[in-house]
Amino acid sequence: MTTATEPTWASVPAIAEQLQLPVTKVHQLMRDGQLIGVRRDGILRIPAEFVLDGLVVKGLPATFTLLRDAGYRDDEIITWLFTGDDSLPGTPIAALRENRGREVHRRAQVAGF
After folding, report:
1. Which of 22, 36, 78, 102 is 20 to 30 Å from 96 by CA-CA measure?
2. CB burial readout 33-44, b (16+ within 10 A) else e
């Protein structure tokens, strides 16, 4: 792994707007494991890169599940997704956004601590 890039942090209302959903539905997506976020400066934030063309990035929820099963916390999952991997190449989130989920999932399966 190479260096991590910083996500573009978005508020829950901003993500709701991108997904064209009510804020309550975004909170439900988070409870259901379809999206994750972290508190930054007391405000719940979600990486804007998790949304593409008005939808949650394909393969992202499955990646969350694989990494959670490997023992990762949400903040660690976000770091993993935004850390460059020379074998991809690029970051896992970039690969998911380019519809290269299988490659990302293979790496997530072996990413356990």
Report:
1. 22
2. eebbbbeeeeee
Against a cut of 0.90, is the pTM above it? Answer: yes
Using CA atoms, how far apart are residues 7 and 22, in angstroms rounded to an integer?
A: 23
| DSSP annotation of 7 | P
Q: What does the pLDDT look like over 35-84, one tens digit per residue?
A: 999 998 899 999 999 999 999 999 999 999 999 999 999 999 999 999 99
Q: How far apart (Å, rounded) are the C-alpha atoms in residues 25 and 72?
A: 24
The total number of residues written for the chain in this structure: 113
The arithmetic mean of pLDDT across residues 14-18, rounded, is 98
Q: Is 15 exposed, middle or buried (0-12, 13-18, 19+ CB in 10 A)?
A: buried
Classify 43 as helix, strand or coil: strand
